[in-house]
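The material for today's practical consists of a large collection of protein records. A record pairs a protein's sequence with a compact description of its fold. Instead of coordinates, the fold is spelled out as a row of discrete tokens. We will come back to this pairing of sequence and fold again and again. Here is such a record, shown just as it appears in the course material.
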Amino acid sequence: MASLHRDPRGKSPFWYCAFTDGDGKRHFRSTKEAKRKKAQAVRDGWQRAAELARKGLLTQVQALKVVSEIYERVNQEPLNSSDTTKFLGNGSNPRNW
């Protein structure tokens, strides 16, 4: 189960997420979001991707879908798919990532 945390020392304005990836390894990463609702959207997306990876269902298409959903929830606008394709090098060669 993923969880949200703040730096108890107050050194960062951002929320942090603790989650377990598809290989069972625990991570603690910054969401780069200062607002809890936006941080929750990022957390939920990471959790969903990790669950799909654990089940062996995280394909390139599904990963792009999860990232697009996170972007849309946080920014209140859809991710431009042509930008995604351009960023990923047309998706044909993972080395272009």
Observations:
- The chain has one domain: 3-96.
- The two ends are 29 Å apart (CA to CA).
